[in-house]
Amino acid sequence: CSLQAGLAVLLKAERLFHSSYHSQAVHIRPICRVISHWCAHLPCDGFTVATCLFLVQDTSCLAVSWELRQTLTVVFDFFSSGQGKKDWSLFKMFSRTLTDTCPLASQSKVYVDISPKNKEKELLEVSPPPTSVHEAIVQGDKKTYAVYDLLSPSLFNTSRSLNVQLKWKRPQDSSEMPIPTLHAQRYVGGYGLQTGEICTLIYNTHPYRAFPVILLETVPWYLRLYVHTLTIITKGKENKPS
């Protein structure tokens, strides 16, 4: 569908490349193929046995398929850009709205995190009303998501476009921002190739649980890194990298 229908309509280059952060990735992996078994129409004493289809996972993995997954991560920061509000909408972020789903898509959904910071204070409201609500456990915390199913016929009945909006019911303290369970900071120290260094700090604020972390560093072409100078320090003690 390219940019004519579906979620890709929102991918306007002018807005994406002027965001605070954007990252594109392509993931390819082999997966065991699903083997299908068919049943034919068989007449029996004047009756016809219905056609059936069985999908069986190939446990021996003799047949392999390739899975392609493309992701796009974008971070918009309206509060620090001068607007002074945490409210957002699809039109504010992308200068476009969703008008139709891609006919080739078997699934097309928009998830909005509406998890309350304090269960006694419901500060968030989304519009239009979502088609469903989904709850999941993410990094040990319970998350609530408003789900907009673009394949639902009722979603585009009231309006020809979908502009998901999130508003705060009352002003919130701008200095009080929720801290993610996993977050990171990165800075450059020193100067030149002799004393220059890149420091990445990864924080885990969970009271007792540890999480596996994969760190991907993007290094400019003009910067030369020496792997033997890599040091990993946890709680003041050095850990040798694997």
Poorly predicted runs are none
Strand fraction: 35-45%
Largest sheet: 3 strands, antiparallel
Distance between the termini: 43 Å
* Percent in helix: under 10%
Discrete helix count:
4
- Rough outline: globular
On the 0-100 scale, what is the average pLDDT? 79
Please identify the structural class as seen in this structure. Answer: mainly beta
The overall strand count is: 16
Q: SSE order, as H and E?
A: HEEEEEEHEHEEEEEEHEEE
Total domain count:
2
Instruction: State the strand order across the main sheet.
Output: 7-12-9
Radius of gyration: 25 Å
Protein traits:
242 residues; globular
What does this structure look like?
This protein is mainly beta and 242 residues long. It has two domains: 162 residues, no CATH class; 58 residues, no CATH class. A three-stranded antiparallel sheet has the order 7-12-9. A hairpin with a 2-residue loop joins β15 and β16. The longest helix is centred in the middle third of the chain and has 5 residues. 3% of the residues are buried. This is PIGT transamidase. It comes from Illadopsis cleaveri (blackcap illadopsis).
Quick description:
With 242 residues, the chain is mainly β.
